[in-house]
Amino acid sequence: MSNQHYSFFGAVERSFDKAAKYTKWDKGVLEQIKECNAVYQMRFPLKRDDGTVEVIEAYRVQHSHHKTPCKGGIRFAAEVNQDEVMALAALMTYKCAIVNVPFGGGKGGIKINPKKYSPYELEKITRRYTAELIKKNFIGPGTDVPAPDYGTGEREMAWILDTYSAMHPGEIDAAGCVTGKPVTQGGVRGRREATGLGVFFGLREVCNMPDVMQKLGLTTGVEGKKVIVQGLGNVGYHSAKFFQDAGSKIVGLAEYEGAIWSNDGLDVDAVFEHRKKTGSILNFPGANNFEKNTDALEMECDILIPAALENVIDGNNAPRIKAKIIGEAANGPLTPEADEVFSKKGILVVPDMYLNAGGVTVSYFEWLKNLSHVRYGRLEKRFTENLNAHILGQIEELTGKKVSDTEREFILHGPDEVDLVYSGLEETMITATHEIMNMWKANPDIPDMRTAAYVVAINKVGTSYAELGIFP
Ligand code: NAD
Questions:
Q1: Is residue 392 a contact partner of residue 408, using CB atoms and an 8 Å limit?
Q2: HEC states along 240-304?
């Protein structure tokens, strides 16, 4: 995991510089795009349940204001530090640009291991953190909008909303101050699984490109592909689940406490239940335990999906990785040294800042829903169903034939919120995949897909700055 000598922000800067060579922007513009615009480091006290007082270290970074609000998750982890939050904020800027979400990049982090705090203590920490953000105008539907990340979820987002609303009475758009909320609190259906679904849509699109698959010696499509996932949290669990549903074989799963494999494929929900019941992923019936959890990364497979934390594949273990495709579901799981190894070996790395953009894409849909104060599909669902029923009735009358009940249900169905969110996400990920691949094909000197993605992002952010008139 993250060690003291490794700079995650430095790694992002190195990837940026590698890509900047393939753009037309002058040095000053590139510098402006690269820097973090605002870094807020804070300390506040927490009175623990046993009466002792502890000082909490926390951050919010706004990497870019070329578009507002800034957007990015809040991480609760013992390893949080300023360098990490800056790197994650920068990735958010590029991520939003690639998937055409009109936000600047931001990120927050609180340096705690959430497992070591009671729910009451976590609530106090989250609410105080929100109050500190409010004091400095670092949160709000038009300024900076946090979301879940590692160690946080719907519960924390509800606390943030409640704190913000309480301190902004009557603000009609208050629900747009944070995304990833429970559906009952202004959340959008489909947000919970959005990042994992985006990972699936992105990798499926890559696997559907015959020329790319041919180069890797793989067949087209995701069906039958052997997949290994590291981290069975929000992103990893849903990624694994969508691959399994599409007919891929989940041959390995790795968690904090260990890892398991089975050549016949693992049932993701059954493993999830087993972990919930026994407290460990290990000893799952019919599966084998790996000696170390990191061994799972090095097992034979077609697609490896690291979905835990950054810096898990570096120059040391990269040469032992056997996957043909690495889908970066986590942020920054590969170091630049690992990138070099894979680039030389012809392994395709599908980069984080586009592949895990499903979360921010659906967060954007949630924010739009909050500003428009209406559930997606509410206005058109019934109208569409009535119209479809009428068209189908006419077709059946004219042909004298009836469609099956299953077909009838499918044709008549008007869109629910989740249908629209899924289709918006699918469209977004497919478009982004093609934009990046087209950039790569048009510039054969670009060494890898990550660099191509950065070029796309830098061009969009550069254009945005230029059109703002900051750089005449
Ligand atoms: P999460 O807290 O829901 O899950 C992370 C899981 O990884 C946990 O189950 C944890 O036990 C496991 N883990 C930790 N260390 C591990 C190790 N060494 N080996 C195996 N498993 C390990 O977090 P998440 O929201 O799923 O985030 C995971 C990654 O995805 C992070 O890099 C995050 O920045 C990124 N991401 C998350 C979102 C989102 O919407 N949640 C969006 C984009 C990117």
A1: yes
A2: HHHHHHCCCEEEEEEECCEEEECCCCCCHHHHHHHHHHHCCCCCCCCCEECCCHHHHHHCCCCEE
236 CA → ligand 1 middle, Å: 7
Which residue's C-alpha comes closest to atom 17 of ligand 1?
Answer: 256
Determine if ligand 1 sits within 6 Å of the CB of residue 108. no
Model confidence pLDDT, tens digit, residues 335-374? 999 999 999 999 999 999 999 999 999 999 999 999 999 9
Q: Which token pair is 439?
A: 């950039």
Residue 311 identity (one-letter amino acid): N
3-state secondary structure (DSSP) of residue 102: coil
pTM comes to 0.95
CA 23 to chain CA centroid, Å, is 26
Q: Locate 190 and state its tokens.
A: 């489909």
Element (H, E) at 184: none
Amino acid letter for position 80:
V
Measured by CA distance, the residue closest to atom 15 of ligand 1 is: 256
> Residues 465, 66: contact at Cβ < 8 Å?
yes
**226-230: strand order across its sheet:** 288-289, 258-261, 249-255, 226-230, 303-306, 325-327, 348-350
Q: How confident is the model at residue 4 (pLDDT cuts 50, 70, 90)?
A: low
Share of the chain above pLDDT 70, in %: 98
Q: Which long-range contacts (CB under 8 A, 24 or more apart) does 460-464 make?
A: 460/97, 460/98, 460/100, 461/33, 461/64, 461/66, 461/93, 461/94, 461/97, 462/23, 462/25, 462/29, 462/30, 462/33, 464/66, 464/67, 464/97
CA–centroid distance, residue 235 to ligand 1 (Å) = 6
Quickly list DSSP for 14-68. Answer: HHHHHHHTTS---HHHHHHHHS-SEEEEEEEEEE-TTS-EEEEEEEEEE---SSS
CA-wise closest residue to 206 among 298, 309, 327, 319: 327
Catalytic residue among 107, 324, 369, 460: 107
Give 344's contacts (C-beta < 8 A, 6+ positions apart). Answer: none
Is 107 labeled as catalytic in the residue annotation? Answer: yes
Q: Which two tokens stand for residue 452?
A: 């191509």
Does the beta carbon of 235 lie inside 6 Å of ligand 1?
yes
CB 287 within 8 A of CB 309: no
Is there an atom of ligand 1 within 6 Å of 232 CB?
Answer: yes
Pocket test for ligand 1, best of 113, 235, 354 (most atoms within 8 A of CB): 235
Task: Pick the residue whose CA is nearest to atom 35 on ligand 1.
Answer: 330
Q: How many residues does the chain have?
A: 472
pLDDT digits (tens, 9 = 90+) for 297-326: 999 999 999 999 999 999 999 999 999 999
The answer to whether the CB of 109 is under 6 A from ligand 1 is no
3-state secondary structure of 189: coil
For residue 331 and ligand 1, the question of a CB distance below 6 A is answered with yes
